[in-house]
Amino acid sequence: MIMRIYQEADYAAMSRRAANLIAAEVIRKPNCVLGLATGSTPVGAYKQLAVWNQQGDLSFKEVQSVNLDEYKGLAPSHDQSYRYFMQTNLFDHIDIDIAKTHVPDGLAADADTECARYDELVRSLGYADLQLLGLGRNGHIGFNEPCDRFVKETHVVDLTQSTIDANARFFASADDVPRQALTMGIGCIMAARRVLLIASGEDKADAVYNAFCGPITPQCPASILQLHNDVVLVGDKAALSKLAAAGVPVCE
Does residue 2 have a pLDDT over 80? Predict the structure, then answer.
């Protein structure tokens, strides 16, 4: 296993480091497949990538993208859908071909069929060259929640209360947060050539520690990354504080 840990001073520095790593992948392989994540953590990195693209420093014209997940029951035009998130935070600001951007269909008539279709799509693209991940406070990656087994395939998941509570700030109320989502499974995530996990804030410190210093268990889905061949963790000092306290070496 190759694992590099970069500790940055704050969210802005973390975002720039993550953007650098993503940009390097696009420059290295212009037709790469990027696995993309949503949530508040990657927003800063996406803004930086948009700036560099608009300055002509890199192009996304040949890039394919596959997103981790989508809420079940939300239309792509819904302002809290993850398709909408990707459009407004990245795709609308770079030169990517929208036909080459892929997000699960939250309105599919048959969610199980859609999950199988999405698995086959990701497989047909050769899986992600670089998979970007955020990290839930309960250790979830994508919407792979703590449970009694690692689910390999894209699947429909019931969101835990902690995830619903964490996402409630994006909705009018917690009652408006969907209770289910379609999520890329652990198998697709682990098939990526490289994984880039980003974490910010003291409230992620326990999850980071459990993911990389705790046992490999589906009760902390991110812990499976200990078995991946090439993982980069980028976090601010607050998120990595428990790693530092445990003496885990980090790069600055």
Answer: no
